[in-house]
Batch of 3 targets.
Target 1
Amino acid sequence: MARKNRDDFDSEHETPPPVICALCGRETPEDQQEAHHLVPKSKGGKQTVMLHRVCHDQIHAIFTDAQLAKKFSTIDAILEDEAVQKFVTWIKTKPPGFADSARDARGSSGRGRR
């Protein structure tokens, strides 16, 4: 009978690596994780990234599905937007489990979901 290697351990007892929000870079608690379709499902998108719920809500408060599909279909493109940059700077000061409703960063510009 072969010896059991100490490095071999039961995956049942293994702690999964933390999920990091693709937008703000903070650790995301399990109850705050949401998958964001880089191109909205309504526009045929399939690829997703994991975000904090508050970050996900903010993206959809700022951009319409059409804007996300045409111009903001990557995290890098989303992060280039000034309103998103201000949001990320602000949210990084909050603890990982922070939950808040999305703010209309554009005022009444008519952007985002309604």
Note: The chain has a mean pLDDT of 84.
Target 2
Amino acid sequence: MPNPKRRHSAQRGAKRRTHYKADTETWSIDKTTGESHLRHHAHWVENKMYYRGKVLVDNAPATPGEVNP
């Protein structure tokens, strides 16, 4: 069986693989909020940014006498 005479670079293989992509975007449903969102992306629900079911950013207005962490 024939073998290549020289090693191919990693860049050469990477250039070939750039054309292998997913055809459609994959959507998921957040288990905490029940909202649909793109996979591996943070999403906003009611002025809160969620990622993997956890709150990353809370932009909800604070009530008087309450301190945002």
Note: Residues 38 and 68 are 28 Å apart (CA to CA).
Target 3
Amino acid sequence: MNEDYKPRFSFEITEEQKQRADRILNDHGMRRTMFSPILDDILDLLEQHGKVIYGLIADRKVKPRNVVPSLAQAASKAEKLR
């Protein structure tokens, strides 16, 4: 394997999501910093609870911030700072 190789995780997003991300996540490295822990939490949840997690989030029966530990913790701490 080439030592310069870095795995990527990519998927399509809407034009609105791209515009928002470009506006909000505009510092170098911010996207990776933000999304790596979220990906780890989602993968942990899927390993622990199976595809029911996928179904709950994909069907919008729950908000990701209510089930993804890193998002729940961030939302709680942000509320306390207000």
Note: The chain has a mean pLDDT of 91.
